[in-house]
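Ligand-bound model needed. zinc ion.
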Amino acid sequence: MKIRQRLMTGALALMTSLAALAADDHDPAKKEAGPNGGRLVTAVEPHLELLVTEDRKVKITFLDEKKQAVDPGETTVKLTCGERANPVRMTFEKDGKSLVSKEVLPEGKNFPAVLQVKSNGKPVFERFQLNLADCPGCEYLEYACTCDHEH
Ligand SMILES: [Zn+2]
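Prediction:
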């Protein structure tokens, strides 16, 4: 007589779907800056920091829950900024774990910007005002402001 051993399959598959339900933390009352003083974008997973560098380039760094840089993998970003009639389209290349724009920001200190983040699914857009003035109410520039002062 031949005894056939069968492996028992676990119920692990049930647990993985629960982890995917982890909620987005879109709490408008609590704003946070990125670890380098940039704008924290939480509309995408993983979250990212958008930072304007001293040479007016834009640096995007994806962050894990502990705000440590994570590799962007296949995720791509684009940034369009400036007036709608004459927008500047910025493209990015990898620099370490970050993505850094090849172009520099247009002249000026305050213009509308749209960030597009694309990984596997649909692109996610983040529209904001890229204001490079110092915020009077907190230690960050306006685009990364974490306070609720009147604009
Ligand atoms: Zn502020």
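The chain has one domain: 31-144.
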